[in-house]
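Review form for a predicted model. The reviewer records the input and the model, then writes brief findings.
Reviewer: anonymous (R2)
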Amino acid sequence: MAYDRVDWHSGGDYPDDLPPENGGTHIGIFLAWAAEKGLIGEFHQEESQEHLTRLQQRNGTGRDFLLEACDGKFWDEDLNEEGNGFAVDYYVGDSPFNQAFSSYLDDYCRIFNQHAEANGFEYPSTYHVEDSWENYERVRPVLEQRFAEWQEWRQLEANRRLDPKEQFRAACQAAGEWLQPLGFKASRQGSLWKKTAADKDTVFTLAFEAEPYNSRADVRMTVQLRIGSKALKKWGTALDPVLADDAILYGALRRSVKHGDTIVWQLAGNQAATALENIRTMVEQQVLPVFELFSDRPRALAHLAAQGSGFPGISDLESTPMAYLLCFGTREQAQSFLDLYIASRPSPWRRNIMETFAQVQAGTDPGLRFQSYSGELHMKLAFSQGLLPPGAG
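Model under review:
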């Protein structure tokens, strides 16, 4: 999510007498304050330490940091969780906090209009404000004031209920009202639901994943699913530690078209009830039948061998079940699944697979740890177990 960018300001009616970077002075002041307040994101803590140190020592301005470390763009990854919470409510316009108090740009303009008036001049535009630490100190007390007001405001009962985490948590709990009677057990405060099949080995997982940096008026999540097997992980570990994975199938609630996007559900306010009802319908119609299929291992193996791993509204044909077929199925079933998977790949991908096969056959493959394309691990596993690509028999 982008909060602001220099190029959003430096086009159109931007003053001809100013360099483009002046469109980022106000952004830089906010970032400098965020750094001083300990609200800068983990990305910059790891990747931009030199820039951060210069900023903290005031050997450069916040705008310098914006241009050099952020490429002139102010994104959610530039802040940590608390910083994003404040930015969503204060920096971005038209939020409940803005309406109750003010927005950053309104405060910024007011501060410098008052400064100019008190000193007998007028800025030709907002962008004519000088990029200096002196001007930073003019804005800093207001940022401190708004941050303190925001911390108090978000603790009010009405606002706490609107907190995106609370809205997400309430949605997860509501989903639990129909998942629990089906035998699913909750963890992660109700955002993760698991059920073990009658075979005591296969585990079905539904995960509600909140989108990063939701706001009170925009609470989004996706619904992910996973099928795993404890015995499969044990089998893979015995072959190679790289294969220590219990995954049989990954998926998500997606649009029911080929390569359909994962659906992002809106939970804010009164939209939650409709979203949850639609999620329940899709889970009952599309997910639970797949879980039921994999509760019967022979039937699941036969299905994968005949039709592959593509399930409408959940997953496209992927290579993940390859290990499952090699572990529990027959050689013929595994070969049939491999044929379906390779046939589903575009021609450049198929060429990569044939190169992998040639390397495995010649003994020149660098090993399972090295992968140059998605699914290569499963192709290496298949070929090492004696399966063949089409036309190689």
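Findings: The longest strand covers residues 220-229.
Further findings: The two ends are 50 Å apart (CA to CA).
Recommendation: see findings above.
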